[in-house]
Amino acid sequence: MEKQLLDTFLDLHLYDTEIHEWSFEKFENFPSRSHRLQMITALMKALEINCSYSDFKEGRFISKVQYNKWKDFKESIIDQLDAKAYARSLKENSHPFDIQSIFRTFMRYRLDAQKLIGVFDGIYAANDEFRAFIKLIEIPNIHLKEELKNIEHVLLFCINPNEIQYTQEELIIQFGFPDVDLRQIDSDIF
Amino acid sequence: MKNTLLTNFLELYTLSDNVTKWSVDNFFYNPPRLYRLQAIDALMKALQINCSYQEFQHGEYLMKLDNLEHSELIIKIKENYPTLFPSNNIVEEEQIDFQFMFEILFSYRMQLQKLISARDSVWEYSEENKYPILIIDDINSKLQADIEALDDILAYLINPKEIHFSNQELIEKYNYLVGDLEEIDSDWI
Asked: First CA to last CA across chain B, in angstroms?
């Protein structure tokens, strides 16, 4: 669920970078966007994240909940970096504000990275020559995706520290998750 | 002088991302931007790229290549990157659209520059925030080899005719500025 929320958020940000303007009114005539917004809204509700979309991006939902679990969570990221640099860089008693700041820094980077990764979503390889030079971009993108795993690991922990889980059906019934096929909707637009 | 134009363009882009608003007037009181803009002007002139910054960004100058220049550029790129254009079909090669290729690669490169330089603008850089910065630095450094590969290809596209000029020519003929960019940048802060 946390992964779906993050991915959908990144996706919608590719369509519209003005997060503070996101609304069902604004996206009324854009089903690809409005359904994504509906998914984000439902997932935030289900994950007990009660804030605006732009506050979400800034990590303003982060509280004692993440803070209390941070110490254990840290064990899972300890091998991300050279141990000494890491020990110096992460104080033992992180304040919720520090976790928020980590989230915010990572989220900004992740959103920028999505602009690179998502660059060919709308372009279909026309011929061999085109496909060949596109490899020049696919290779850094493959590396970037791999390297982003550490960042995503932290973002996903912050989004769902209590590991709340619902089935798709529960999301639809209880939280208004749209019962639609996004691929179908996206392809109808072309 | 390899890729000086590219470097200056990318650096100025991270300082001011609306290319249509780049002008001496707009940057008059901002030496780091002004200096880079004047370097771009001189280099574009020296490389015979006669168009606006925005047209450059979209590779429009590459549409002016004649047939001979077009096939020479293909040969040069193929020599160094045999896999890039796999077919040996002359008809298909004639259709290679360098303007489009440059536009795609360059816009990707600009976005990449934004990503790797975003870290410089993290104003909340502090003891508490050191961990994400370390992680981001690590990612950025791992992307460096890919960036260099991309820049090598862009170098061919920016200077398809392989025009050569010395630093002195650049200064005397094209008004390239003499000055220490690092000093200009640090004075500004």
From this structure: 27
> Rounded to an integer, what distance in angstroms lies between the CA atom of residue B105 and that of residue B97?
12
pLDDT tens digits, one per residue of A5-52: 999 999 999 999 999 999 999 999 999 999 999 999 999 999 999 999
- Cβ atoms of B42 and B170 closer than 8 Å: yes
Query: How many whole angstroms separate alpha carbon B73 and alpha carbon B98?
Result: 9
Q: 10 Å Cβ neighbour count for A171?
A: 20
- The pTM of this model reads 0.88
CA torsion A36-A41-A47-A52 (nearest 10°) is 120
Q: How many C-beta atoms lie closer than 10 Å to residue A20's C-beta?
A: 10
**What does the alpha-carbon distance between residue B135 and residue A148 come to, in Å, rounded to a whole number?**
9
DSSP character at residue A90: S
Q: How many other β-carbons are positioned within 10 Å of the β-carbon of residue A7?
A: 14
| Token pair in block for residue A133 | 């030079």
> Which value, in Å, is the radius of gyration of the alpha carbons in chain B?
18
Q: What are the tens digits of pLDDT across the range A49-67?
A: 999 999 999 999 999 899 8
Other C-beta atoms lying within 10 Å of the C-beta of residue B123: 7
What is the ipTM score, two decimals? 0.86
- In three-state secondary structure terms, A74 is helix
Which chain A residues are Cβ-neighbours of B132 within 8 angstroms? Answer: 101-102, 105-106, 109, 151, 154
Of B86, B96, B112, the CB nearest to A116: B112
In whole angstroms, give the CA distance from residue B181 to residue B35. 8
Residue A113, min C-alpha distance to chain B (Å): 6
